[in-house]
Amino acid sequence: xxxxxxxxxxxxxxxxxxxxxxxxxxxxxxxxxxxxxxxxxxxxxxxxxxxxxxxxxxxxxxxxxxxxxxxxxxxxxxxxxxxxxxxxxxxxxxxxxxxxxxxxxxxxxxxxxxxxxxxxxxxxxxxxxxxxxxxxxxxxxxxxxxxxxxxxxxxxxxxxxxxxxxxxxxxxxxxxxxxxxxxxxxxxxxxxxxxxxxxxxxxxxxxxxxxxxxxxxxxxxxxxxxxxxxxxxxxxxxxxxxxxxxxxxxxxxxxxxxxxxxxxxxxxxxxxxxxxxxxxxxxxxxxxxxxxxxxxxxxxxxxxxxxxxxxxxxxxxxxxxxxxxxxxxxxxxxxxxxxxxxxxxxxxxxxxxxxxxxxxxxxxxxxxxxxxxxxxxxxxxxxxxxx
Length: 387
Known about the structure:
The protein is of the alpha+beta class and 387 residues long. The chain folds into 2 domains: 24-130 and 255-387, no CATH class; 135-254, Ribonucleotide Reductase Protein R1, domain 1, CATH 1.10.40. 38% of the residues lie in helices and 16% in strands.
């Protein structure tokens, strides 16, 4: 191996053996820049990983809460069923004076469910407090209209149209106008079994009319099976239909129901169309009263009579279907007896469960039915809608 001899001159000028100062500074700068880049990349990767982990954890927690709340809401529905079955044993009528209709009482009952976290709210309402849409036609024949129901619908739509007109002072579109008689005729044509050129009145509508729309569709020519079908009927506007969007301005969907079918054997059915005056809301009470009266004042008198209390106890008996005659101003008023009842076995239950800012709602419609063998009542689910 050969070694290079280092001369004294080279040692004297040893600076020639070292890199230039500028080169050293450049190398240090590059090293610092590379280090900062690596650190930045590590920070970005770490933050992104953290974000994904937190998102996964949050999604898992949300899924867990939703599943938990689904069971909680279902428990609320079953609890409400128990309340309604107990009520059937204890009372022969159904009214706002009973525990199932008392929000405070239901709150107490819901509080007894041993959930460690979250809350549960239950609301029970009488489906017979609403007007049966399908009772407008006499089934099972399905051709002739029910005159009493026709007048009932005309009064309901007239009152709602008045409310819409008073609430919407800026309305400038004819499409939003409500024509009660035209809607009743169109609804009759939608429900009856016939589909020909013989429309009801001058403004009814069969398939020929609906086929001319964009997009076209057929007339139902049978009972309505989902309340949203009303929006397909000629004359039913969005302003008229609206379903509880504004508590101060409810719509048609808040006061009508598709339920109430009664089996007639051989797959046939009918609807009696009776309304429980012990639970009906003001617009429905107004529709029950003669049109030539001050229906708003009289309906309010009925509403107040039902709810009158003394020392936390209800004062007035609601067993008789003619109790309304005892309310102020109604002693000479007669409501068509074919339209009213004081009992019900159809109810709507709303169960809302909340936990960790997650909310789950279930709406169920049920019917209390009597078992032929045991003679005991149970609840049959007619509809179950989760939200």
